[in-house]
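Holo prediction — zinc ion.
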Amino acid sequence: MVPLVYHPTYNITAFGFERLHPFDGRKYKRIHAALIARGLRRAGDFIRPRAATRTDLLRLHTPGYLQSLRQSIVLARILEVPQVRRFPAWAINWRILRPMRYATGGTILACRLALEHGVAVNLSGGYHHASADRGGGFCVYADVPLAVKTLRDEGKIGAVLVVDLDAHQGNGTAAAFRNWPWAKMLDLYEEDIYPVPKEPVDFPLAVGPGLTGSDYIGMVVDALIDALDAVRPDLVVYNAGSDPFIDDPLASFRLTRSDLAERDLLVVSLVRERSIPVAMVLSGGYSGESWRIHTDAIEDILVRFDKAS
Ligand SMILES: [Zn+2]
């Protein structure tokens, strides 16, 4: 069975947060519940991560950055919710940062499980605007760079390729990778939306608004094959953001739910055809349909890969 990593603490339900930011902080539990309701998993089948500890975080993040997260004003900027300035920092830590530390632990665990099972999915993660000394765009901890650095330091992987198909550029991941010749990134993003400025990446696909599913998927296939041939990675981390969806309020791509499920299955299949392990994380997605898009995609991946994993 494909390991699915999930912890109930992933869900962010603080302070009426869901009314202050378009991100659905409960989407993780919705996906978890839907996978059970569809008969794909039982509650006991999910693998619970531990939260990333300060020692874990210091493998990537600077002490000064972690220290700055004790200030509500810094967190308000990173989370893009000005009202957060009025909340005490200890409460933000407990209700928002703690879930994100579980999500970060989940990405580390999913990468480990991918090496053992071929495919693994963290039902959160992909906070790709965070880097070693900076957060932004709702991203506090750079879970993917942290996970791959951990495995690299342990001698478990050589080269790694991150495939970032969230509609926004993964500028934090790219910044973290800048001085790591062993870590490469393929990033298909909309060029006229957040973040500004963009960060240089190894395999950039910067596109304008309005891209449809067939054009998009054609670009992904060509670029992914080229990147896999060039990098020959020991692990792929797939940042499967659902915000290229046609009704997403923060991006202008025009992919349907079925296009996104096709995309995710295609990426995982192309990587697995080469016997390369792949860990998938969910990343952004701001429509009310985001949880359903991910559930559909994960269902297709389980149907295809459960027997082989
Ligand atoms: Zn995004």
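READOUT: The CA atoms of residues 51 and 102 lie 4 Å apart.
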